## 1
Amino acid sequence: MKPTPTSPPELAPLLAFGAHPDDIEFSIGGIVAQEVALGRRVHFVVCSRGEAGTHGSPALRTKEAKKAAEILGASIEFMRLDGDAHLEIKARHAIKLAAVIRRIRPVVIVAPTVVPTQHPDHWRLGTLVRDAARLARFGGMKELRKNPPHAIGQLFFYALSPNAEPTGVTPVIVDISRAHIVTSWKSAMEAHASQMKTRNYLELQLARARMHGLASGVGHAQLLFPDAPIVFESLAAISRAAQRF
Ligand SMILES: [Zn+2]
């Protein structure tokens, strides 16, 4: 039998949700830069303007987030839910997020982990996004009729800090070692200058990526925690990175 030619997988958009203006960049900015470099559209949905933060006005935080998204090559929109530090789990929020999923139609979604030992907005947003991914599929949702139902391929959770990493979930490790990827990620974090007045989060996140890289045999790596089992269409998707020890 003649083998059928394989076509490259369609690069459907990646949709990233953040509770605060800098969450996506500090957690998975390298992954974003990498996906953009591969030709994928990445869209950020930021669900507050950081108005409860100690440093930086909402206007400044918005400006910094827009600059960071631009550096990474992502598009960005802001969504008002309950406001910074006030986010609650409500069906109407999940429906609003589901409407974005139907509009952008991603294969991959990323959101904060649902581990409660972190900023409450983070795990609540992760919970809302998980609900939204389900609601986006349901044909009978009256509020979502503007766009047809949409099923995603995978929801991944990201952890802004080690204590937000879920236990018992094997992460997917993304190699972000290429020099221009790390440079772009660093610049995106530097764009959030108002948030580095108390601690050098840039250095901390870089050290974390180095540590994950060390554990996986690459220079820098970032983790994603899958919400559901990952199904490979082919074993070709498995890289040789883990065999470099
Ligand atoms: Zn945050």
Note: DSSP finds six helices and seven strands in the chain.
## 2
Amino acid sequence: MIENVRTAVVTGGGHGIGRAICRRLSKEGISVVVADLDDSAAQSVAKELDGRAFAVDVGDEQQLSGLITTVENEIGPIDLFVSNAGVGYGDGSAGAASKEGGLNPTDDRWESCWRVNVMAHVYAARELVPRMIERGGGHLVNIASAAGLLSQIGDAAYSATKHAAVAFAESIAITHGEEGIHVAVVCPQAVATRMIGIADDSDSMEGGFGGNDVDGILAPEQVADCIVEGIRDGRFLILPHQQVSEYFRRKASDYDRWISGMQRFRRNLTEQ
Ligand SMILES: NC(=O)c1ccc[n+]([C@@H]2O[C@H](COP(=O)([O-])OP(=O)(O)OC[C@H]3O[C@@H](n4cnc5c(N)ncnc54)[C@H](O)[C@@H]3O)[C@@H](O)[C@H]2O)c1
């Protein structure tokens, strides 16, 4: 049981971490709404959990606020909103300053990362914070990444937008925490999902993640368990890979040394 949570919405709930969160919340007796760009995946998770599915592009404010309004009108107040949908495309051939690679040879991949990894969190908060304050509180859980505290070697747009997602979560927690809004930001390293090249329900945990799986790849279910525990404890920062805490401390205590260490790490990866 998560106290006072009856209805939850999980974006990107059709696959990977989002799907595992949906399943775990349902086990807690929570009524789950699965929102995903991939309609059939959302339908299939919702069917399994006796929940509701919505096809939504979270990077579109109208669609996201429409989702929230429909859920609140038809199902009930949203007590927990998990902004989990996320995208990453990788740097192009010229590295972090590249104009190529990823999805498109233009600024599109930066824009897509910005909309999905950051603005979707802003749109959800805009719509829900006033509603939640009025009824005495609620939970916003934003899935960022260890790349939002450290950096993702080989993906500048992902790293920059995940940093922005962490900063936005901080702002909401600072501004609205005392009004009953519990904000959590989740910063995993590698998790066995399609994002790192591992199909849903695959037996294999082998990822092609450019060395970012150095501390091991977690199953999405392990991440979902950490999230539920973190919500119960009222935590802000949820770190499924605990090593991230130490790396973050080292980065803060000597930034220049940390950059040199990351340069060395990158060189080792590219020379492998
Ligand atoms: N897998 C990892 O190693 C890892 C590590 C750290 C953080 N994360 C983060 O975890 C979150 C979940 O990713 P995942 O690993 O489960 O990947 P995934 O690709 O398996 O799942 C992402 C889900 O988001 C949905 N989605 C993408 N764009 C959308 C949009 N515009 N609107 C609605 N839904 C959309 C996809 O359809 C998919 O269901 C992401 O925010 C990701 O950045 C993943």
Note: The chain has a mean pLDDT of 93.
